[in-house]
Each structure stands twice: as structure tokens, then as C-alpha cells.
Write a structure and sequence with these properties.
This protein is an alpha/beta fold and about 200 residues long. Helices cover about 30% and strands about 35% of the residues. The protein contains 3 helices and 8 strands. Helix 2 crosses helix 3.
């Protein structure tokens, strides 16, 4: 009996290994994404303020817990979310988002680089922008949606001078995750423009 089953068992073992290796070979590679900031202005563009006259800080920036994960989140329905299996953020969204907001505000206001909370160095911050993002997701091939609220605090006296609700929707124009992240970046650019226009009211 042992001799009769030896060959079939060996064949089954080889076939099992082959199926396992084939499954490994067919696994899709992981892809990693980051949000992008607004393009730098051209030489003919006019700045909103005199460069370097006002120090601006961004943060704290809070994001909803469901976004605080490596996987990119998409929305299947108003109540159902899906985590991408192979499409991830290249760095925590809680780090990437504040940096992009700071870069955008620096570009839009033509100021020195905007500080990101927590501040470092001895340069005081004149205006601080706090942001809470309650939704940043979307449907593949549909729209990317950004929902939240933000406020501006004048550090001299810790005075709250503006608070706004915000919602932006940007079409992806394609079905992939790269198109979704690009649409998210445009929505964040819209938010940055909204904040910059408000800050401009208080600048000399």
C-alpha cells in the first residue's frame, strides 16, 4: 500500500507547491500615493502680501479616525466604506495633509514657508489655522469629497477671528486610485484658497 500511494502523493505535493507559487506570482504589487500641493505661481503672478511680513502657522490638523490608516479609503455607499488592498498612503495622512496645506498657503499668500504645528524655532506665529477634516474619501470613477471645518486664531491675544464649515467635491475623471488622490489634492487646493482668501482680509 505504501508503494502504491508514494507516486500520487509526490505528484500532489508538487502540484500544491505549483499552485501556491502561481498564487504568489499573481499577487498585485502594492502602490503608494501622496497628496500634491498647488503649482508654484509664474513670474508674472502678483502676491497677495509682501513676502515675509506675516508669520502663519497651520495646525493642529485633525482627521477622522477612519482615515488614520495606511489604506486609501473609498466609499461604496453613504454607509459603506472600503479599504484598498494594494493602494496605500506613502506616509500617514495626518502628516501629509498639514504639509500640503502649508505649502499651498505659502504659495497663495506669497509668504515665507508656513509653519506646521508644533512650531519650532523662535519666530512667533501671527495667525494660526486649525483644521478638522471629517471626510476625505470618494468613489473610484466618481467624485472625491472633502468635508470639515476650520478656524483662524490671531496669536496676539489668542483671538478667534474666523470659523467656517467647508465642503468640496472634485470629479476624478478616471477609475483608478491615482485619479482619486489627484482629485483629493484639488479639493485640498480649494480649501487652501478659501483659507487664504480669509487670511488676506487681516493682512496689512
Amino acid at each position: 500500500m505504501t508503494r502504491r500511494c508514494f507516486v500520487p502523493c509526490a505528484v500532489l505535493a508538487v502540484l500544491s507547491v505549483g499552485v501556491f507559487l502561481a498564487g504568489c506570482a499573481s499577487t498585485a504589487p502594492s502602490r503608494f500615493y501622496v497628496l500634491s500641493s498647488l503649482p508654484a505661481p509664474g513670474p508674472a503672478s502678483k502676491p497677495f502680501t509682501d513676502q515675509g511680513r506675516t508669520a502663519i502657522g497651520i495646525g493642529p490638523v485633525e482627521i477622522s479616525k477612519y482615515l488614520d490608516r495606511p489604506q486609501i479609503v473609498t466609499r461604496e455607499s453613504p454607509n459603506e466604506l472600503k479599504l484598498a488592498e494594494f493602494d496605500n498612503w506613502a506616509e500617514p495622512l495626518g502628516d501629509n495633509l498639514p504639509r500640503v496645506l502649508a505649502e499651498n498657503l505659502s504659495t497663495l499668500l506669497s509668504t515665507e514657508p508656513v509653519a506646521v504645528f508644533p512650531w519650532r524655532g523662535s519666530t512667533p506665529v501671527d495667525y494660526r489655522v486649525e483644521v478638522v477634516v471629517t471626510q476625505l474619501d470618494g468613489e473610484l470613477g466618481g467624485d472625491a469629497v472633502l468635508v470639515g471645518h476650520w478656524s483662524i486664531i490671531k496669536e496676539d491675544g489668542n483671538e478667534l477671528i474666523a470659523i467656517r464649515e467647508t465642503r468640496f467635491s472634485e470629479p476624478t475623471g478616471a477609475s483608478g486610485y491615482e485619479a482619486l488622490v489627484s482629485a483629493m489634492s484639488r479639493a485640498i487646493g480649494n480649501l487652501s484658497q478659501q483659507i487664504a482668501a480669509e487670511i488676506q482680509k487681516y493682512l496689512p
